[in-house]
Specification:
This protein is of the alpha/beta class. The chain is built from eleven helices and twelve strands. It folds into two domains: about 300 residues, Alkaline Phosphatase, subunit A; about 50 residues. Helices cover about 35% and strands about 15% of the residues. Strands 1, 5, 6, 7, 8, 9, 10, 11 and 12 form a nine-stranded mixed beta sheet that branches.
Length: about 375
């Protein structure tokens, strides 16, 4: 199918719990890896080699295939100065692009506000999963959060529009207090109307979808299938978000990490095949991130919270390769036993925002950062 000329899409996959970079992009040519990881390591013969020094986990074979086609950029040593090893705080830093203070707006929420300044499309951003990721949160920016696209809806059993209107009014009254038209009621009423409108539109997407791709029956695969259904329905959505985990592998890491990457890699491969089948491979960028890395030394059966990590950028327009220096394993170069981040995550955000979405990144990421070269200017 001929590739479409549509607005660029961004698909974000969050690996919740902190993915282990050393067992994902493996420095198998470095003997220090085996010295520090006597128990939790991949054998050299298991690794899918990039070169004589580094290779993919064998459980990311499908993504390695995309790498071999030049469609994957690996962002090594990604993180931020003075890392916080709390899941909640570190995720908050990445979600808001603000390492130095508590912020209220997500970076993708700000991006959506720039993409749709008048909030004309209630589906500019869609989260596939429960709750609303902080990245997408921004006052005045509607976002749909979809657990299951087949059954999604607000008051889905109410077919009559007047009945839905009454239900929304009751929804607003329940949270707004006694005053009939106070600010809370107005806000919740608009939120409800936006959610209702988005739900009604989204529920049309599965019926429009046909594909030869068979997605696996796991959470990440089904979320990406839902993303494909929405994308191919041409509803004007630009930001697609989902998450998977937990990658918090304090114990039993080898088996757990393998299973998780089997799921993620397979799901990304299926999604990419779907993009190609529908001619959307040239206007879609996939970004995979996690809140921090893991400790360099294993703890016997797993690894504990660390610092510097690895991110993935995948797409037809990506200039594949390694970006950012892979952090040194030498003890004198470690950050308290962790991989030391050597490139700020906001460099990657800046590259995506400016070179993919065509936005001014500075106000969105709270500063000016040199972009990487994995996308053309």
């Amino acid at each position: 199918m001929v590739a479409s000329q549509k607005s660029p899409n961004l698909v974000v996959i969050q690996l919740i719990g902190a993915n282990d970079p050393l067992n994902t992009i493996i420095p198998y040519g470095n003997p220090l890896y085996y010295d520090f990881r006597p128990n939790v390591h991949m054998k050299p013969e298991e690794v899918l080699p990039i070169d004589d020094d580094f290779g993919f986990t064998p459980h990311a074979g499908a993504i390695k295939s995309l790498w071999d086609q030049g469609k994957v950029a690996l962002i090594n040593g990604i993180g931020y100065t003075n890392p916080n090893r709390s899941h909640f705080r570190s995720m908050d830093v990445w979600h808001t692009a603000q390492p130095d203070k508590i912020a209220t707006e997500g970076w993708l929420g700000r991006a959506m506000r720039e993409l749709d300044p008048n909030a004309e499309n209630v589906l500019t951003g869609v989260n596939f999963g429960r709750g609303l990721p902080r990245s997408l949160s921004c006052r005045g920016v509607p976002v749909a959060s979809v657990g299951n696209l087949e059954t999604y809806g607000l008051f889905p059993d109410l077919k009559d529009e007047q009945e839905k209107h009454y239900a929304l009014e009751a929804f607003a009254q329940m949270y707004g207090g006694a005053e009939a038209h106070d600010a809370v009621i107005d806000f919740l009423g608009q939120t409800g109307r936006d959610a209702l409108k988005g739900a009604d539109i989204l529920r049309t997407a599965p019926a429009k979808y046909t594909s030869s791709v068979e997605y696996a029956p796991n959470g990440i695969a089904q979320s990406l299938k839902n993303a494909a259904q929405v994308m191919f329905a041409d509803l004007g959505t630009r930001i697609y978000y989902t998450s998977y985990g937990s990658f918090d592998t304090h114990g039993g890491e080898l088996a757990q990490h393998a299973s998780l990457w089997d799921d993620v890699s397979g799901a990304v491969s299926d999604f990419y095949a779907d993009l190609e089948e529908h001619g959307r491979e040239d206007d879609t960028l996939i970004y995979i991130w996690t809140e921090f890395g893991r400790r360099i030394r294993d703890n016997g059966s797993g690894t504990d919270h660390g610092a510097g990590g690895t991110a993935f950028i995948i797409g037809n327009k990506v200039k594949g390769g390694m970006y950012g220096e892979y952090p040194s394993l030498k003890e004198e170069d470690q950050l308290d036993g962790d991989l030391k981040a050597n490139n700020d995550f906001r460099q990657t955000y800046t590259t995506i925002l400016e070179r993919w979405l065509g936005l001014d990144a500075g106000p969105i990421v709270n500063g000016r950062f040199e972009p990487h070269d994995f996308l053309d200017k």
